[in-house]
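Today's session is about reading a structure prediction critically. Students often jump straight to the picture, but the first step is always the sequence itself: look for stretches that repeat, for charged clusters, for runs of hydrophobic residues. Only then move on to the predicted structure, which in these notes is written as discrete structure tokens rather than atom positions. Here is the chain we will use throughout the hour.
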Amino acid sequence: MSDAPSLESAVAADRVRNVRADDGARTALALGLVGALGEELLARLVGSSEYRVVHVGVTQPIGSAAARFRPWVVGQGVVIADDAYVCLAGPETFVPAGSPLRAFAPGELLAAARIARDCGARRLVVVAPLDALLQMSAAAATIASSDEIELARMGFESVLIVRPTAADDTRPAGRWIAGLVRAAGRTLADIMLPTYARALSVKSAARAIVEAARTARSGVTVLGARDLLAIVEAKWPQLAPKRRKLR
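Below is the predicted structure for this chain, in token form.
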């Protein structure tokens, strides 16, 4: 199936260009910003002076008390955005059953990218968490799937793929022994893994992602946990994690 923009998409893009000619303020589209990191990233975007409006993808109409926070039921028309942020939610991401935010699984990356393109976004930021062990492999800093390769063909001026270390699985372990094994594994990982492979706090990770997006170059860029840690150490050294040691 061809990925060429539809007639409806072309009309929407033309409308976006016309509106931007009259309004120089930047706007953002936030898709899938669920879980601890997604929620922190959303709060940082809404609180940033970078954007006048942040359109947030939801599954049902909801009210908003913040002027910059604009809920948008995904699929009901299009909104206008300069930048789009997409967080992919893996099985370790906890999303409350009643949450109105629209989550996007890793397999829905292209669907989210098409939504962003239809809304006129020129810069696409994809947050795709990666397990700590994989942060030490080439997958952390390179294109890792055919879907990510396809992003380069979709017409965005800039595509930034960020791979923070995936958070711990917060789902109930089921049996006490499974929870004990999981806790022991986390402790061992904190000791044995390189500092950069450990998960940053959600506040530090969200700050680093916004900073990386702000300075993103044209084309496709991939940043792993090592790169995010470097941003934190350079901009906010007091927030950099300390290495745990055996006693």
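Discussion point for the tutorial: The chain has one domain: 7-172+197-239.
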